[in-house]
Write a structure and sequence with these properties.
Chain A: InterPro entries: Pirin, Pirin_N_dom, Quercetinase_C, RmlC-like_jellyroll, RmlC_Cupin_sf. The complex is a heterodimer of chains A (240) and B (98). Chain A has 240 residues and is mainly β. In chain A, 0% of the residues lie in helices and 54% in strands. In chain A, the strands form four sheets. A seven-stranded mixed beta sheet of chain A has the order 1-20-17-22-15-13-14, with no helix packed on it. Classes of the chains: A mainly beta (240), B alpha/beta (98).
């Protein structure tokens, strides 16, 4: 029998630092909620609004798979592996922090607010060699379709990570219905509504609401508004 | 009363950042080292409430280190610190200390 947990938009942690307006789906930085620590290996889902030209100076990370999806605007990224890049809306960036990496992230534009999702997953292997990748996504391929944007497999389209996780993005017309089959036994789904209104397994979700579902093999999805955009995170429920 | 937290990791830059983060809170006293020998020396001379294992410690070394830590201070809590920065630190410590 499937189980689920609802995380409504207004129950997320919130920190407004002026230049950074952040919403945390799980405990992060000074936001601590023992009931919101992780969903399986999904540990962080931050929804950040960053003012023009502002951002995070060089800071280190280790042993975490870090995925960044800009929803609006562009990120300027530099890291200790020698990567210097701009990631635009419509692209995805992934960084395996492994044994340790330092990076900075800034809004690449002076006059446009940056909105990004930053997602951290516990890795399935500690102390891997740090790696970086970014890919431009075919935005058209997600119209009425859950487009796979991340997987554990290097040979798949788009990006891969050190974890048995699959991410998909979809943008749907009103009334469109589909089902999503979980990729691996024991995984659960954390579905985050980027925009619009949908139902998942009969639960109505609005913009920035989320639902976590586990002990199931598939989920049922229906768009109930015309601009419904959803990120599905198919992740192991057991911590390694 | 301060909680004494010992961080052990192999990356010097992360260790410096962890030292700054842990000691930024008046309720915590952070001691951050890169070598197991330094860690053992600290455990032999002062009471530690929590040990954070950071990056770069391979699984064999981790097993030996945990055994050595607990042989000196059997009641100390040992947890993995993930992420290498401030993002998860507060939650990890609060959870570990109950």
């Amino acid at each position: 029998m499937s189980q689920f947990i609802l995380h409504k938009e207004n129950t997320r942690g919130h920190a407004n630092h002026g230049w950074l307006n952040a919403h945390h789906s799980f405990s992060f930085a000074n936001y601590y909620n023992p009931d919101r620590m992780h969903f399986g290996v999904l540990r962080v889902l931050n929804d950040d609004l960053i003012d023009g030209g502002m951002g995070f100076g060089a800071h280190p990370h280790d042993n975490m798979e870090i995925i960044t999806i800009p929803l609006a605007g562009a990120i300027a990224h530099k890291d200790s592996m020698g990567n210097s890049a701009v990631i635009n809306a419509g692209e995805i960036q992934v960084m395996s922090a492994g044994t340790g990496v330092s990076h900075s992230e800034f809004n690449a534009l002076e006059d446009v607010q940056l909105n990004l999702l930053q997602i951290w997953l516990f890795p399935n292997k500690k102390n891997v060699s740090p790696r970086y990748d970014q890919k431009a996504l075919n935005v058209d391929a997600r119209h009425n379709n859950f487009q796979q944007i991340l997987s554990p497999n290097a040979e798949d389209d788009n990006v891969w990570i050190h974890q048995d996780a699959w991410f998909s993005l979809g943008k749907f017309d009103e009334g469109f219905e589909t089902a999503y089959k979980i990729k691996k036994a024991g995984n659960g789904i954390y579905a985050f509504v980027i925009s619009g209104e949908v139902t998942i397994n009969g639960q109505t979700l609005s913009k920035r609401d989320a639902i976590g579902i586990w002990d199931t093999e598939s989920i049922n999805f229906k768009a109930i508004s015309s601009d419904a955009e959803v990120l599905l995170m198919d992740v192991p429920m057991e911590l390694n | 009363m301060q909680t004494t937290i010992l961080y052990i990791g192999r990356d010097t830059e992360i260790t410096i950042v962890m030292n700054r983060l842990l000691n930024a809170r008046p309720e915590w006293k952070g001691i951050c080292v890169c070598s197991d020998a330094e860690a053992i020396s600290i455990l032999e001379t002062q009471k530690v409430d929590l040990v954070l294992l950071g990056n770069g410690i391979d699984s064999n070394a981790e097993e030996i280190l945990k055994k050595n830590i607990l042989s000196i201070q059997p009641k100390v809590k040992i947890i993995q610190h993930y992420g290498g920065g401030s993002g998860l630190l507060y939650g990890e410590i609060m959870t570990a200390l109950g």
